[in-house]
Amino acid sequence: KAGVTQTPRYLIKTRGQQVTLSCSPISGHRSVSWYQQTPGQGLQFLFEYFSETQRNKGNFPGRFSGRQFSNSRSEMNVSTLELGDSALYLCASSLDASGAKETQYFGPGTRLLVL
Amino acid sequence: GENVEQHPSTLSVQEGDSAVIKCTYSDSASNYFPWYKQELGKGPQLIIDIRSNVGEKKDQRIAVTLNKTAKHFSLHITETQPEDSAVYFCAASRGGGSQGNLIFGKGTKLSVKP
Description:
The complex is a heterodimer of chains A (115) and B (114).
Chain A: E1 5-7, E2 10-13, E3 19-24, E4 31-38, E5 42-50, E6 53-57, E7 64-68, E8 74-78, E9 87-94, E10 105-106, E11 110-114
Parallel strand pairs in A: 2-11
Antiparallel strand pairs in A: 1-3, 3-8, 4-5, 4-9, 5-6, 7-8, 9-10, 9-11
Chain B: E1 4-7, E2 10-14, E3 19-25, E4 32-38, E5 45-51, E6 56-59, E7 62-67, E8 72-77, E9 86-92, E10 103-104, E11 108-113
């Protein structure tokens, strides 16, 4: 089975721009979560989508948003980019985030640099 | 909310020695505890996980122990090899559903010297 894929792998943007990152979960997985990883704050939860609905949200400003499509693929968007948004953005998928199927598998991440 | 603390932040061992990484959590409702290994330029890779109804789990050279009363869990790697060098993260969650997000520790950089 193919793993979690994320595109693009690297991205350079300037302050004020917006960016869209894409994630394709493992086939059959219905839940997609997004995390931000920085040297200072570590791995922090952004949001989770299940059946095209945002089911859980972390403590990030409204500039960070996402969506999920009917095939479980997900996108996240960051508007009005700030220098502090430079980070590795990780997507994780799980089979069905209910009961005992909560194991999350991560993709390789998208490294975003904001200049 | 949940807070996960991880120690040590760096760990250097000789090849063949054992390595132990410890984590504590604050939320007594947490019931799922995975460990991830992250190599340079890659995403975190799940290496082992444990649920709160189990006290210990082993997979070859890797073992995890959980003490629910004390709210701490540990990763044990035996017979370390240079390829074990990476950053290791512990995490905790309330399990699946709408509360399934992982809360991570800050990571431990493990160096295994040949």
